[in-house]
Amino acid sequence: MTKRTYLPLAALLLSGTAMPAFAQAIETPQQDQSTSPTTPEAANDGTNDIVVTANRREQNLQDVSGVVQAFSSDDLRKSGITELRNLAVAVPGLNIANQEGNVEIFIRGVGSSNNTELGDPGAAPHLNGSYIPRPRGLGLMFYDLERVEVNKGPQGTLYGRNALAGTLNIITAKPTFDRITGYAQAEYGNRDSYAAEGAINVPLGSNFAARVAGYYINRDYGFTNASPDPQASKLKPAGLEENYAGRLSLRWEPTDRLSVSVVGDYGKETGTGYPGANIYAAVQATGLRPEQLDLRKVVYRGQQGDMENELWGVQGKIGYSFDTFSVEATGSYRSVDFMQANASSESIAWNGRDYSTVQFDNFSNNFWQTRSQSQVYELRASADSTEALRWNLGGFYFKEKQQVGYLAVADRGYCCYSGTEFTMPDVDGESFAFFADATYDVTDRLRVIGGIRYTEEKKSRFGIGGNWALTLGGNNGDCCVATRLGTEGFRPALLDRPNFNVAGLTSPQQRAQFLIEGIKSAGARDTLIQQIGSIANGTNPNGTCFTRPDIDNGFVTCPANGSFSYANLTIP
Fold first, then answer.
1. If you write DSSP's letter for every residue of 526-563 in order, what string do you get?
2. How far apart are CA 42 and CA 60, in angstroms?
3. Amino acid 22: pLDDT
4. Is the peptide bond preceding residue 480 cis, with omega within 30 degrees of 0?
5. What is the pTM of this model?
6. 3-class secondary structure, 446
7. N or C: which end of the chain has fewer CB within 10 A?
8. Whole-angstrom Cα distance, residue 296 to residue 223?
9. Using CB atoms within 10 A of its CB, is residue 155 exposed (0-12), middle (13-18) or buried (19+)?
């Protein structure tokens, strides 16, 4: 699929005064944030300018024609904004949510919740100006910062179609040449939470410096397991977190015109997965509103929730300043490797709840796997901010390879359905663009702004998608013998499948082999492999029929020969 996008030339005439760019003063209502320097350089030169890069070049915030909110590291620290999601408290119109590990950014109600391999953010996240296509784990980058910029409103000309709502740019602290500096901080909070963060800046010469930063947090459960079942009560609730990250930044400026920087980072998230309380059943049963219920007492069942997310990346930037304009080339590579087994629950606990109808020995669950390797390159030239005609001219290239897997397991499938799998081992995306914009000061009270962008984009995917289904007949053609899938210890193969080509898999033996290949490790009480293993290896085309208390539906018996009376298998 190829997509071409044209953003037409647009002009904006501003009379009176320039459209203001808003900075949020978050220490106290009386403080004027323009008195707080944003960069180390601004702090040293005695100016009070807030420098932002919302228009892809350094500008005084008050000269930006748009709505930009910028927060320095001091602003964030003094206001207690230590997590990415807390930024929404300080930015009107900004909402940051976590959906199964995906970071969803909405600005003024506009964004995207399509977190599949086909979706893209609607509000474009950036790290040091480089686009991040999969913001899963973005919170691990929110430490040792220089500033954060939120650019509201469509930014398609300079940032591409994924910036329909705006942009969020996390700018990390840069190494400085003047002296050894650093900081360390630690915290302890409720939920047995403790965290530490620190950085050290080391000059390695008069024009070369390095900065090393790190971050760690350990947070206990935010929920309580209210399950009365002896086995299910041993499950650790969702919400346990242990996250850590590190970053190395290098900066070299051999002349006052040439600058080179490299930033490498690594992070890992682990825990019991993201919480889901499933309160609908409680509200329906009690007639109470959610605020009248204890939403943290969750009745868990099935498998232990488990999550692991590993990400790393490297960025490079080379800039050269000429007399009236500058040129900058950037490149970045980012890798994401995510796996999660959901925590399963039977809603929350409430007074007088009858647990006799709850099937705690039910391991129906969802498994997710996401891998992404992306490259982003940009070459851009821009005029100095002192020129009457200020312009950007650039080219952009993006390439991403994804591998994604999803399996919904329906344990105790009494007939014809055992789960749904969508596994795409080869998802390719590629895009290139050319863009230009310009601002011309007609007078000190009138300016003209225009911009244009051309984008060509291709996406493709290959994989499997559909249901796992076993229709296994008993004695006299009775339907159907139950199947268990997903019990203790079960893990799906997903991206580790040996084969994804379903073309030509028409025989029962081929279909049985394909289903079994989707299992990396069988659950302790799973029956699927026992039931269809003889079909897969060719020893019995009708499989192996047996009964057991947990798969006995009360009206199906096995034929005397130990085979099913019929066995129909459906593969994704």
1. --HHHHHHHHHTTS-TT------GGG--SS----TTSS
2. 11
3. 35
4. yes
5. 0.85
6. strand
7. N
8. 5
9. buried
d(CA 186, CA 436): 45
Strand partners, 360: none
Side-chain-facing half-sphere of 263: CA atoms under 13 Å? 23
**Cβ proximity of 226 and 186 under 8 Å:** no
348-397 confidence digits (pLDDT tens): 999 999 999 899 999 999 999 999 999 999 999 999 888 889 899 999 99
CB 269 within 8 A of CB 307: yes
**Burial environment of residue 281 by CB neighbours within 10 A (0 to 12, 13 to 18, 19 or more):** middle
The string of pLDDT tens digits covering residues 264-318 is: 999 999 999 876 778 888 999 999 998 899 999 999 999 999 999 999 999 999 9
Helix (H) or strand (E) holding 404: strand 389-409
Instruction: Please name the residues in contact with 15: beta carbons below 8 A apart, sequence gap of 6 or more.
Output: 445, 446
For tokens 């296994």, what's the residue? Answer: 472
Residue in the block written with tokens 């409680």: 282
According to DSSP, the residues that pair with 383 across neighbouring strands are 325
Dihedral angle sign, alpha carbons of residues 276, 279, 280, 282: positive
Tokens 């398609």 correspond to: 156
Please name the residue that has the structure tokens 């590291």: 73
Burial class (CB in 10 A: 0-12, 13-18, 19+), 517: middle
Report the 10 Å Cβ neighbour count for 468. 24
Residue 512: CA count within 13 A, CB half-sphere: 24
Nearest in space to 176 (alpha carbons), one of 44, 320, 326, 330: 44
Which residues, 6+ apart, have CB-to-CB distance to 81 below 8 Å? 26, 71, 87, 89, 90
Distances (CA, A) of 512 to 45, 463, 517: 72, 18, 9
Rounded Cα–Cα distance for residues 151 and 169 (Å): 8
Q: Would you state the structure tokens that stand for residue 502, as one six-digit string?
A: 């379903």
Tokens standing for 63? 């000269």
CB 300 within 8 A of CB 274: no
Tokens 């821009």 sit on residue = 382
Q: How far is CA 570 from CA 97, 475, 483, 534, in A?
A: 37, 21, 14, 17
Cα separation, 439 vs 450, in Å, equals: 7
User: How far apart (Å, rounded) are the C-alpha atoms in residues 463 and 132?
Assistant: 24
Structure token digits, residue 470: 């076993």
- Nearest of 493, 489, 530, 483 to residue 514 by alpha carbon: 493
Structure-block tokens of residue 315 = 């960025």
